[in-house]
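Quick question, first post here. What does this chain look like in 3D?
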Amino acid sequence: MDIVVSNKGSRPLYEQIADQIKGAILRGEAKAGDPLPSIRSLAKALHISILTVQKAYDTLQEEGFIETTAGKGCYVAPQNQDFYLEEQQKKIEEKFAEAITIARASGISLEKLTNLLSLMYEEDE
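> Answer (accepted):
Ran it through. Tokens below.
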């Protein structure tokens, strides 16, 4: 699993690490029971603080993506993909609610908003 971080973006390094590991798990590149790099080795490889990697791993554990065994390390947890997808859908709904509020206040119609979403979605493919 290759992890790449950038100091140039606005996203914290720990989020970049956590998101890349989540992505690998969801794509099936990392399977339940697979070991993750040790915190020290990943921090050394990325030239970042051990605390940053620790925060990423803590986030992943809180979200149920990894399990930590004292003295043995961190491993990919058995996944409940439905739970993860539900969480992602809630985040999207919150962003949509914000966009709808702005559109209504600006007099932008549902049709224009839908067209804009379609264009933006297809643009990244």
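The beta strands are 66-69, 73-76.
The chain has five helices and two strands.
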